[in-house]
Automatic annotation (TrEMBL):
GO terms for cellular component: plasma membrane. The keyword Methyltransferase does not apply. It is a multi-pass membrane protein. The chain crosses the membrane at residues 30-51, 82-102, 109-129, 149-169, 198-217, 237-267, 279-298. Keywords: Cell membrane, Membrane, Transmembrane, Transmembrane helix. It is found in: Cell membrane. Its main location: membrane. The keyword Transmembrane helix applies. GO terms for molecular function: transmembrane transporter activity. This is ABC transporter permease. It comes from Corynebacterium yudongzhengii. InterPro entries: ABC_transp_permease (IPR001851).
Length: 305
């Protein structure tokens, strides 16, 4: 239960909703849950890197909006090819994250402050570029919101992002170094790890995944919206923590984050099927986040004994 609490909770929730709302387990609705979870899951995979190192990233929702907006603007206004604008959107995320990483690694800013400032900057830039209005996106981006046979491409993007997150964390030196930083940053530094370089890489990856999610959301609507990603940073943090990561760092993984993101999507979808007010849905999500953090505290105490 300590290691698979989110998965057990998801299974129990699915059983309850299948009984309470017969339409829940239909193929169309299951696919709908996957599509709804895709953007949050992709952002959360990037957030996993940050939380594993003991940090936090509040800028991901705004970075997602800026990535999609820059891509749409460069196609609609500058006339660049669609595939070029897609790459530019991703680079916006990498650059935003790298700047945050630099400010933390060299400027010694707390992650909370650095990412809060970046959230304000990127959200402001999105509004400046768009002048508060949606901008149509290119076919070079819109394919990410289409279907590949019977499977929506956003679900494929979510799976690919999850596999990439898993590979980096479990099969690369960078990934193992992230766990070392989260366990004890000073010990990691004394043992010769390039702590500053790792931190920059971690936040650059978080920005990359955020921009990736922003492009997926842009593709689903065939336009970049100025308010894209509002509040998604909180859902991403919740998905990572619900999935078993520790806010203290040193623990977390792609599978747990995936389960956490699906759990949040299932809760929202189930409440919609049960005709629960969106106002009450926010309360339920808040209680789930509080329960996940409380469970994390209890788990840490249990594992330390």
């Amino acid at each position: 239960m300590l290691n698979n609490g989110a998965l057990v909770g998801l299974i129990v929730l699915v059983i309850i909703l299948a009984i309470a709302a017969p339409a829940f387990l239909t193929i169309d609705n299951v696919i709908n849950v996957g599509v709804q979870a895709a953007a949050i899951a992709i952002i959360a995979f990037g957030m996993t890197f940050v939380i594993v190192t003991g940090g936090i990233d509040l800028s991901v929702g705004a970075v997602a909006a800026l990535g999609g907006m820059v891509s749409a603007f460069m196609w609609a206004e500058a006339g660049l090819p669609g595939w070029v604008t897609l790459i530019l959107g991703l680079l916006v995320g990498v650059l935003s994250g790298a700047i945050v990483g630099l400010s933390i690694a060299y400027g010694k800013l707390p992650a909370f402050i650095a990412t809060l400032a970046m959230m304000s900057i990127t959200r402001g830039l999105t509004l400046v570029i768009s002048e508060g209005s949606p901008i149509a996106s290119s076919s070079g981006v819109n394919w990410m919101g289409a279907d590949f046979g019977p499977v929506p491409v956003p679900i494929i993007m979510m799976v690919l992002a999850g596999l990439l997150c898993w590979f980096i964390l479990s099969r690369t030196v960078l990934g193992r170094s992230m766990y070392a930083l989260g366990g004890n940053m000073e010990a990691a530094r004394l043992s010769g790890l390039p702590v500053r370089r790792i931190l920059i890489s971690v936040y650059a990856l978080s920005g990359l995944f955020a921009a990736w999610a922003g492009l997926v959301m842009t593709a689903r609507l065939s336009s970049a919206q100025p308010n894209t990603g509002m509040g998604y940073e909180l859902d991403a943090i919740a998905a990572v923590v619900i999935g078993g990561a520790s806010l203290a760092g040193g623990r977390g993984g792609a599978w747990g984050t995936f389960v956490g993101a699906i759990l949040l999507a299932v809760i929202r979808n189930g409440l919609n099927l049960l005709n629960v007010s969106s106002f009450w849905q926010q309360i339920v999500i808040g209680l789930v986040i509080a329960a996940a953090v409380g469970f994390d505290v209890i788990r840490n105490k249990t594992l330390s004994q």
